Amino acid sequence: MIVRAGGATALCALALCAPSSEAALQTFGSALSAQASIDEARQSDTAYWQTAAAGGSTAGVAPAAGSIRSFKLKGVALSRPVAGISGGETLFHLQALRPMPNAPGETSRVIITSQGFDVPQKMGANEQAITTYEPENFCVAKGDVLAFNTVGGWDGIPTGLGPYPNGTRLRIFAPVPGALVSQFNGADQTNNGDILKHDHVRGQGQELLMQLTLATGEDAAGPCPTSAPIAPKVEPDALPQRTKISSERVTVAPEGSLSVALFCSAPSAARWCNGIVRVLSRERRPRLLAARGYTIAPGKLRGAALRLSSNGRKLFSKANRRLSVNIQTVTSPGGPVRTVTQPFTLRARG
Question: Are residues 193 and 295 in the same domain?
Fold first, then answer.
């Protein structure tokens, strides 16, 4: 949830509200003094984090153990997403990455992921909006790296003729000599427990305009340790909605259309399952063959109609109309994104 935008009154979660006189707070990350003027866009899940800083900013590394009380993001998303239609999504999550010094190369493991937030859309000429967010019980250990993780926002149109051929453009970076933003990109490869390999190529001379406030000692969120390394665990009954794939077999009509039965698994009746269902080729570098958005009521079963792209139809024909694929649902009901992937063999209908 967005807690404050442009000076609006904060909506403070009870677990995080402590008297300011007792606060043990430390601020790190961007000083937010540079102007947001660099756009970055990716088709799929991508984590960004500040490896090196310059000027009045610091690297995005937790200086102590505790909890992230809040964080600020400067900039906007240059998109106008439409509910139920793929593309232009502004959803993102805050993540804590733990460096793996004994692993080959530069790598980190995803330790914890916040609930979902949205980058504000550009309103008029204001591109320098500063928005404040408050994650829930976001525990970190000293040395954890704080990352901004976008879901991408690709429109799913392989021809590149759609409105978001490279994903949602996020203007939340600034040109700062000597600064470095690292990143990792991979569809469904940035979940808790995943290992991210650092990429420093595109982020040379850039600053991620994200500033974090860390609460330590007695001011940290109740469940957060303040010394030992943290390995957060999500209990089964605390999991958010996820969309399960209920189809036993999937057939393809001559024109390339197919249908997938989806079920909204609902620990909470207050949230609907919103997300994207995708058909991916089963290759080392999967290709998107079909995609569409969905909205399903809690505890309900619904069919999602898709159509193979031209490349998908060619692959299906080349495989003698028996094509091995993965069908994937990506559910984002307001909490951590939940992904379900199942293998299928597409067969000709009739």
Answer: no
Tell me which of 167, 185, 219 is where a domain ends.
219
255 and 184, same structural domain?
A: no
Q: Is residue 228 part of a domain?
A: no
Please count the structural domains in the chain: 2
The one-letter code for the residue type at 172 is I
Sign of the dihedral through C-alpha 233, 237, 240, 246 = positive
Strands of 170-321 (E only): list them. 170-185, 195-197, 204-208, 210-215, 242-245, 251-252, 257-265, 273-281, 288-296, 301-307
Token representation of residue 328: 């994937």
Residue 157: exposed, middle, or buried by beta-carbon count in 10 A (0-12, 13-18, 19+)? middle
Non-local CB neighbours of 125 within 8 Å, separated by 6+ positions? none
Based on the fold, state whether residues 78 and 139 are members of the same structural domain: yes
Candidates 224, 287, 288; CA nearest to 62 is 224
Per DSSP, the three-state class of 196 is strand
- State which residues form the domain around 174: 17-219
CA dist 294 and 255 (Å) reads 22
**Tens digit of each residue's pLDDT (9 = 90 or more) over 105-158:** 688 999 999 999 999 998 776 889 999 999 988 999 999 999 999 999 998 888
Query: 249 and 186, same structural domain?
Result: no
φ, ψ of residue 341 in degrees (nearest 5): -125, 130
Read off the pLDDT of residues 62-71 as tens digits, 9 standing for 90 and up: 999 999 999 9
- What is the DSSP secondary structure assignment for residue 55, as one 8-state letter? T
Identify whether 227 is part of a domain: no
Could you say which of 167, 187, 219 is where a domain stops? 219
